[in-house]
Amino acid sequence: MGSSWPGAAAPRCPGRDDQPTPAAPGERAEGEHGTRRRLALARAATMVVLFVLAVVLGSWAPRVPQVKSDLGLGDGQLGLALLGAPSGAVASLWLAGLAVTRVGSAAVVRAALPAYCGVGALLMFVHDQWSLFALLALWGATSSGLDIAANAQAIGVQDRYGRPIMSTAHAAWTAGALSGAGIGTAAASLGVPAGTQFAVLGALCAGIALPVTRWMLTDPVRIAPADPDPVPREAGGVGAAAPGTRPGPAGPRRRRGARGPFAALCAVSFGSFLCEGVAADWSGVYLTEVTGVPAGRAGAGFIAFTVCMLAVRLVGDRALGRFGPARTVRALATVAIVGFAGALALAAAPVGVAAGVLGFGAIGAGTACVAPAVFSRAAQLGVSAGRSIAVVSTVGYAGWLTGPPLVGALAELAGLHRALAVVVLLLATIAAFAPALRDPDADADAETDVETDQR
What we know:
By secondary structure, the protein is mainly α. 72% of the residues lie in helices and 0% in strands. Helix 5 (105-119) packs antiparallel against helix 6 (129-161).
């Protein structure tokens, strides 16, 4: 996965007796069309599931103030209750990865989707801090299971396409988060009870997403190879093995020497999720307290962050395919470093407000392709996509959880303006460890292709 994402190598021909009878031109065309259609439907189903996952999640944040008021919770009680969601998510990540490995990603999606969409309706039965904690823990557990399985399915589709599609899949998630935030805000302004909102929204989302899961690929994702020889791709070149992977008949295995690169991937994931968490929780506070934005416009920073992330993810697959994930992630992280460092430097200037909004937008653009690239590379290094994604996701969630409190502690000591310099340091970490996203096998294949062309 270095400078390009090459397709599968030429078909293997061990002997004349082993070669199948060539298909007629009409049969080849029909086979290619059918394969492309199956992959397109599987890709669409995965994007629908990721969109639904984010819609429900995004609609929760605008309802938190009302839930707090209805339950009569103080700030400390609410903060403790809100820890239920990440606690449940982290606790179930390993189980979700194991389930994906054992029964396949499509089966896990079908099991987790209705549970995830239905849990929110239980809000109408929540009556205190601890029942809210329990509900959010259950919600987080079903959310992480659905998230891991949907990403594993997306990687399986990407393997068969032979080119990047993960960035577009994650763009669906970002679009869903924006839509969910709008739905939650509208429901709150209309006075719709939170339990009713999630009961209706969950039913609609499950009704839309569950039927399309039949389009998903049903075979468990096979990642790392035992057979070093390449395998032939399906008719028309569709269904190629993922870049840098060569699945063989003996089944998957972890690549030798993968521990170091995998640790670097975890560092990249940690830094990216931490930056995202800080942008979500501290962008409004920064704009209000440091640059002097009125409270009614404080959300501009997070809006810029989300819109820029969505825009980059929509074109991210092309960038990843053309320049490779290492170059793409490093370049985007560099843009984010310059953009946000500049925003901090200009905080007291007349353009401080505009610089702050653009700075958070730069963070969104700079981290947009990290998760798609890290998940794809981790799946190539690991024995199974589910377990590999679970590992990097666990580390990423740790960054998401620790980032906002870390900034808060630093702000108490040195002020929020200086505390946010930690974001610049974490972006620099992403750029520094970006070479871990490079696939040596893909680079070797690309060099071989160049040498062949020169001959």
